[in-house]
Write a structure and sequence with these properties.
By secondary structure, this protein is mainly alpha-helical. It is 73% helix and 3% strand. The chain is globular.
């Protein structure tokens, strides 16, 4: 009875704290992820209020949080979206891999962590945070920008790459060697290929089998199926997270929409528990010694992510302002970096403190670089426009029709199509009345 009482008290205190700091993050316009990590550090061993009775429950909740995170991520994509992104964005994906995974691998080798630690830290520095970036783009009103499909294309390639990377990392962490890693990778490739084929050819049939008019039945079937597939995937050394991701891809249409609506609050709760658990497993005293390497790694990979976005946007024919905005938006790291570090922490405990400090830095810096890339280039463009005698940096002699808040139809500064003008979006002036405005 005493143990149950202590469990309820600790669990209630943790969830209430997460709710309060989540509201605080929303008020100041930040992602709650760094605050969840800090809460985990406070509740962990060596923290201000260490937990004892609820640690096992939080660990199980963290596993469910990872599964729901990946399921919801898979629901965001259809199989056709993934295939299209693979065909059009694979050069940008390769550049992203080389530029952003290499610093992590090199840093791990210099720190003496060996090949497995290098593979793990390479993943931490490689993958951007889809959740943080999507929220930042929404908050800044950039979902209609020309560079936004490029950003999303890079994120899709990264997310799909996790279906191959996580099984390989899991096999290496299990000590099965390169041969076992190759087998796990082959199984992952076959599984991903089979799921994509089934989703392309039979998505309606799969969705109809899962569909239900009763929200309770739909929730039970989807969650049960996802956890079952995740467990089977874990047994096959393919990673539970990848199994959940593939279930999300296989669902489509109204079923996917309904599942997203039902699972969003549950996902947010257990994802918060996951970030807290990662902080729980990290000793706060271990962070100061790795703070300098984390700062250096954050500085290098901020530059490489900006270069990645610049390259990807340039391939799409987007002008300099859009290229810089694309690069600035990709800087944030978050949920995937923490998932990878959590997998590797049992084998290489030193990766936990470094990954925690690294994610804390970049989940805070990412939204700032996204805002700076937009506002800095906008101020520069408006100043050049005034010198030219134009309006807001537009091309002289052209006419633009206002399409919506902050969007105009017509060539951008480089004459390459619709542009986004933050001058309009910030309400500092209004376009002239009528269907068109002078450029």
């Amino acid at each position: 009875m005493h143990d149950t009482t202590a469990l309820l008290v600790e669990l209630g205190a943790v969830i209430l704290t997460l709710g309060l700091i989540g509201r605080l993050a929303g008020r100041v316009g930040l992602s709650p992820i760094p605050l969840y990590l800090l809460a985990g550090l406070a509740f962990g061993q060596g923290g201000l209020m260490p937990l004892y009775a609820s640690e096992g429950f939080v660990a199980a909740g963290a596993e469910i949080g990872v599964i729901l995170l990946l399921l919801m991520l898979g629901l965001e994509y259809s199989a056709s979206d993934l295939v299209t992104s693979l065909r059009t964005q694979y050069p940008s994906g390769l550049v992203d891999l080389v530029l952003n995974a290499t610093p992590g691998a090199v840093a791990a080798l210099l720190l003496g962590w060996g090949p497995v630690g290098a593979v793990a830290l390479a993943g931490v520095t490689w993958i951007s945070s889809s959740g943080v970036i999507a929220k930042v783009l929404t908050d800044l009103g950039r979902l209609g920008n020309r560079e936004t499909p490029v950003i999303l294309g890079v994120l899709v390639i990264e997310d799909l790459s996790m279906a191959l990377y996580l099984p390989l990392l899991t096999a290496l962490l299990a000590g099965v060697g390169l041969a076992g890693g190759g087998v796990a990778l082959a199984i992952a490739l076959g599984t991903v290929g089979a799921v994509l084929y089934a989703a392309l050819r039979h998505s309606r049939l799969i969705s109809r089998a899962v569909s239900s008019d009763d929200p309770e039945m739909l929730l039970l079937v989807v969650v049960g199926l996802t956890v079952l597939v995740a467990g089977i995937a874990q047994r096959l050394q393919v990673s539970a997270a990848v199994g959940a991701f593939l279930v999300g891809i296989a669902l489509s249409g109204e079923v996917a929409e309904g599942v997203r609506r039902l699972l969003s609050p549950l996902r947010d709760l257990f994802a918060a528990v996951f970030f807290v658990f990662f902080g729980l497993s990290t000793d706060p005293a271990a962070i100061p010694p790795v703070l300098l390497p984390a700062l250096l790694l954050a500085a290098v990979t901020t530059a490489t992510k900006i270069a990645t976005g610049w390259y990807a946007a340039r391939r799409a024919g987007i002008g300099r302002r859009g290229r810089l905005r694309a690069g600035g938006a990709l800087v944030a790291r978050g949920e995937f970096s923490v998932v990878i570090a959590g997998l590797a922490a049992a084998t290489e405990p030193r990766i936990g403190p470094l990954a925690t400090a690294y994610v804390l830095l970049l989940v805070l810096l990412g939204p700032l670089t996204a805002r700076w890339a937009g506002s800095g280039t906008a101020r520069h463009g408006r100043w050049r426009g005034r010198l030219r005698g134009g309006f807001g940096g537009g091309v002289r002699g052209r006419r633009f029709r206002v399409r919506g808040r902050g969007h105009t139809e017509g060539p951008d500064r480089n004459g390459r199509g619709p542009r986004y003008d933050p001058w309009f979006s910030r309400g500092r002036c209004s376009p002239p009345a009528g269907p068109s405005a002078p450029g």
